[in-house]
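Supplementary notes for students who missed Thursday's class. We covered one full example, reproduced here. Read the sequence, then the structure, then the short commentary at the end.
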Amino acid sequence: MEFFASLLSIMFGAIGASQVSADFSTREQGRAAVARILSVMEEPEDETKGNESSSSFDAATISSIKGGIDLEHAQFSYPLRPDTLIFYESPSNGNNALNLSVPPRESLGIVGGSGSGKSSVLQLILRFYDLTSGTCKIDKSHSISDLSIDWLRHQIGYVGQQPTLFTGTVKENIILGKPDASHDEIISAAKAAHAHGFISQLSDGYDTDIGMGGG
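Structure (token representation):
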């Protein structure tokens, strides 16, 4: 009898320990999720969207652009990591920060290790972030900080490292970049991305339904 009592005690003890472990793990995951949510909520308001500054969506535009890009003495760190500079003055670079010039209609490959700032360059040009110091100019004379963000982003075609496909048709995914695009513009965009060929082979072409992430 004592044997069975001891066995039951061990079994319930094991179940209790397992449950406590599971509850603790769930609680810690919840705390981590809340911390991530709070970090987003505590982010300062995006100053680039202010209605009173020259950086607003209603700011200046350029009637005609050639497409040259120049980063001059650019320094940058991400808002949540202000002490970790991505671009900075360096003795090996003559105590200069990032200087980069891309002439119109030229292709440029930026090569470097993970975290070296390759994607950051594009995010700065699109003004997803603003430079800590220095300038970014279009065609040598137009600082992007003086231009309408809405206008600026409509001048640039950007494909990130992990492009996302949304539930809907192929056509609906393409026109996310330009909701009022004509049929010819949709076809032209697909051809420019070398996608028209395989899209045409889908069951309903541009009207083929695709799941989240292309599933």
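Commentary. Residues 131 and 180 are 32 Å apart (CA to CA). The longest helix spans residues 2-41. If anything here is unclear, bring it to office hours.
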